[in-house]
């Protein structure tokens, strides 16, 4: 699984979520199962809970800015390496909100859907 990123000059999608606190993310932390379908058609299922579920639910809803005080990148690494979730990072230039020269946004690189686990991404 490859997680390459490249720097883009354009802007991230307008719906990209900038996380300042856990309250900006979906709230459901109970265990849930997800089906991941790659472009090739290969599928696998995973079960996640707590912070991993919160970040996965957020990524299902919309792209998420990488930099965050809640350490999103730690959860993304766990989802990528322990659960095989294909999450990519696209790099952009000139973030007006933070004055950073370069910044990243996480995207799911496959179809991911919740198949059980009740509740929604609150």
Structure description:
The chain starts with 6 loop residues before the first strand and ends in a 6-residue tail after the last strand. It has helices at residues 50-61, 72-83, and strands spanning 7-8, 32-37, 43-48, 64-65, 87-95, 100-108, 111-116. Strands 1-5-6-4 form a 4-stranded mixed sheet. A 3-stranded antiparallel sheet has the order 3-2-7. The chain is built from 2 helices and 7 strands, in the order βββαβαβββ. It is an alpha+beta fold. α1 packs across α2. The chain has one domain (7-116). β2 (32-37) and β3 (43-48) form a beta hairpin. Helix content is 20%, strand content 33%.
Question: What is the compact description of this entry?
Answer:
With about 120 residues, this protein is of the alpha+beta class. Helices cover about 20% and strands about 35% of the residues.
Topology:
Elements: E1 7-8, E2 32-37, E3 43-48, H1 50-61, E4 64-65, H2 72-83, E5 87-95, E6 100-108, E7 111-116
Parallel strand pairs: 1-5
Antiparallel strand pairs: 2-3, 2-7, 4-6, 5-6
